[in-house]
Amino acid sequence: MSDTMPIEEYLLKGGVLTSPDNVTPRYRGELLRLMASFVDSELAGAAGFADTINDAPGIKERIASAKIVLEKTDHAGRVLEIMGSFGADTGRYAVHHPWDARLERDADIGAARQGGDMRLSVFHYPLHGWIDAVVMNVLMGTASTIQLRELARVSYQPLAEVFRAILPSEAHHTELGIEENCRNGRRSIGSPQGNRLLAPPRCGKLRALRLGALRNAGSLRPSPHTQRDAAIRMAGGRRCAACCAQSELTGRIRR
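Below the sequence we write its predicted structure tokens.
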């Protein structure tokens, strides 16, 4: 009789794996797919956000956005290092694809992967200006924080430790975006942009969220239950890339 426990049973009992030598081919494939999606999304997100740094309205905002780009790139590098232990060419990986490449804003690609990378499909959409970038950051940051809390319990221990280490930084990116959304709202009072914020949104999914956001417009630190609402109020009436991000990631998390 063999004393070896099947890996499925071992993982179900709470076991963890610590080395590429201990994983099965199927486990290896799923783990690499998960890591590639995270790395590609971080690199693509950082590349897209980098283009908006010069759109920031002040020095403080430019520093914050530059820090987000730096830390997202660093987070991608940490996970890429683990991919390297599975044989990935880490030296070539970061430069093998144009991470700033984007499709047209009105392209309807759903959740399908595009091109030669594994980024979430929302990162194929361009950002139109500073407010668009901040709203996108808040919605993606909120969804990503939920996802990272789940991934921090992944059974491959080295990867779980990395996700736990980067989670606070990713959550802080969202907090910075929420604060900037509130400042943007105050700057826009009485302007054509501000008037547009008060118009009924054309996206039906935003209406109920928008009401809650307007009620919390004076707060720099909304509660976790109103963070998304605070971001939505700057989305105006148009269907933006940030709206797509929230829908896609929420669906993925629930599955």
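The longest helix spans residues 157-188.
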